[in-house]
Design brief:
Layout: E1 2-3, E2 25-31, H1 35-46, E3 51-54, H2 62-66, E4 75-76, H3 81-86, H4 92-99, H5 104-113, E5 118-120, E6 125-128, H6 133-146, E7 150-152, E8 157-163, E9 168-173, E10 178-186, H7 201-208, E11 213-214, E12 223-225, E13 237-247, E14 250-261, E15 265-267, H8 269-282, E16 287-292, H9 299-312, H10 318-321, H11 328-338, H12 351-362, E17 364-371, E18 383-384, E19 389-390, E20 395-396, E21 402-404, H13 418-433
Parallel strand pairs: 2-3, 2-10, 3-7, 10-21
Antiparallel strand pairs: 1-7, 4-6, 5-6, 8-9, 9-10, 11-18, 12-15, 12-17, 13-14, 13-16, 14-15, 16-17, 19-20
Helix pairs in contact: 1-6, 1-13, 9-12, 11-12
The protein binds flavin-adenine dinucleotide.
């Protein structure tokens, strides 16, 4: 996909065509066509800059299209800047000057002025009324076209070098093509869902250019849960169970293994191995893990097993026999979750309650609150150290005329539209200053 630039701007990008495309010295090259890159490129184009946006995929914004389960939770309705910044915890102190220029109110206006109708859901989460991330994508692509941005997809940048003498960046594309730019915006994203194009190479270039990239220190850690009932289970181990991870209700992965309940949540090898992936999901989504205590039995077989147990001991109370099927520490919490009175005699347990119990034992929901690291429940996104970026402009403090935006920055944030808000804010500010 190439949107051609036909305007003359300082003679730099006038009437270029693909064969001599590499010889132009671009005023601005944005690397990475995700939400942050699209916002920055569109804004710089709107200001009359000659902008080239390079994206390695065939299309822009592949990750954007899967956000919010395909519905795109594009921000959170917290118009007061300080309230919004509090959500970013210790990173919030860095973000003030960027949010002072383009915060939630401006984002809502930006999309509304371009015809996107939004709606608010739980906890202030804002979605397009269409329930389609595609509608957000359409607005951004229109913004790029209106700004006269040249978009070149299937263009993977493999190297960025700074030519100090010429005051230019030299970019090398996979395949060898060279592109020169007076200013460069890096918007290559983080490392989650690499199939969308976010494979983290931006971090390698930035390290070579002298930046510090903070790693996620919480790679193998237990998880804190939001469900108070798990506290009663500290020390209980469940073996041979199936764990299924969901982000915003979308299934992510399943794993067979073992789980240990701790006082704060869950641990054990399977959880520890999943913790980094879950930490990344937590930066943008609500994460739930479903436990299947009987992965080898389907629902019908488990229903029969429960029915046999209740029939054989028909005069006993359900709370006194369920421990023959599941660990005894789980009996009370499971009956509570299923809404069944433990004193009910087995012969009187209603069919609907039996079905509810079976469904629960096949998918006990655990709501993940955070990673339990050295400082308890810290989520770290990893990325470029914030001290190295001037948030008034998003320009690097290490390399002049290099701008860093979006997921490439080390900003911890909860789920609820806060990640995309960061993309809009940092992208807009970079585009306004580059
Ligand atoms: C499943 C899922 C659901 C999410 N849901 C939400 C949500 O509802 N709300 C929310 O706020 N956030 C959500 N997020 C987070 C949000 O998607 C990210 O914060 C956001 O996409 C980051 O945008 P970005 O532009 O910084 O990077 P990305 O979206 O990762 O885009 C980076 C782009 O750079 C390109 N690129 C990378 N390297 C190169 C290269 N060498 N050359 C050229 N191009 C390159 C990539 O192909 C990619 O298109 C979700 C994330 C996931 C994975």
């Amino acid at each position: 996909m190439v949107y051609k630039e036909n305007r003359s701007r300082d003679g730099l990008a006038s009437g270029f065509s693909l064969p001599n495309f590499s010889r132009a010295v671009w005023e601005v090259v944005v690397i990475g066509g995700g939400p942050a890159g699209m916002m920055a490129a569109g804004r710089a184009g709107e200001r009359g800059r000659a902008v080239l946006l390079l994206e390695k995929n065939e299309t822009l914004g592949r990750k954007l299209l899967i956000t919010g389960g395909g519905r795109c939770n594009l921000t959170n309705n917290k118009p007061a800047v300080r309230t919004m910044l509090a959500q970013y915890r210790q990173s919030g102190q860095f973000l003030f000057s960027a949010f002072a220029q383009f915060a939630v109110r401006e984002v809502l206006d930006f999309f509304a002025q371009r015809g996107l109708v939004l709606k608010e859901e739980n906890d202030g989460r804002m979605f397009p009324k269409s329930n389609r991330a595609q509608s957000v994508w359409d607005v951004l692509v229109q913004f790029l076209k209106a700004g006269g941005v040249t978009v070149k997809t299937k263009s993977e940048v493999s190297k960025i070098e700074k030519n100090v003498a010429l005051g230019q960046f030299s970019l090398t594309l996979k395949g060898g093509e060279k592109i020169a730019a007076r200013a460069c915006v890096v918007a290559t994203g983080g490392t989650s869902h690499p199939e969308t194009g976010s494979t983290g190479e931006g971090f390698e270039w930035l390290k070579r250019l002298g930046h510090t990239v903070v790693e996620n220190n919480f790679a193998l850690v237990p998880l804190a849960l939001a469900d108070p009932w798990v506290k009663r289970l500290g020390g209980v181990t469940l073996s041979d169970i199936k764990l299924t991870v969901f982000a915003d209700g979308q299934k992510q992965s399943t794993h067979l293994g073992k789980l240990l309940f701790t006082h704060f949540g869950v641990s054990g090898p399977t959880i520890l191995n999943l913790s980094q992936a879950i930490g990344e999901l937590l930066t943008h989504s609500q994460v739930t893990i479903h436990l299947d205590l009987f992965p080898k039995l389907d629902t019908v077989a488990l229903r029969d097993k429960l029915q046999t147990l209740l029939t054989v001991e028909s005069n006993k109370k359900i709370k006194n026999v369920l421990g023959k099927l599941i660990p005894s520490a789980l009996v009370e919490p499971m009956l509570d979750l299923a809404g069944i009175d433990g004193a009910t005699p087995n012969h009187s347990v209603r069919r609907a309650d039996r079905l509810k119990l079976v469904a629960l034992l096949k998918a006990i929901p655990l709501r993940v609150k955070g990673l339990l690291g050295a400082n308890k429940a810290i989520i770290s996104a990893g990325g470029v150290a914030l001290e190295e970026v001037n948030f008034k402009t998003m320009e690097s403090r290490i390399v002049p005329r290099l701008y860093l935006i979006g997921d490439i920055l080390n900003i911890a944030r909860p789920s609820g539209g806060y990640s995309l808000q960061l993309c809009w804010t940092t992208g807009f500010v970079a585009g306004s200053n580059v």
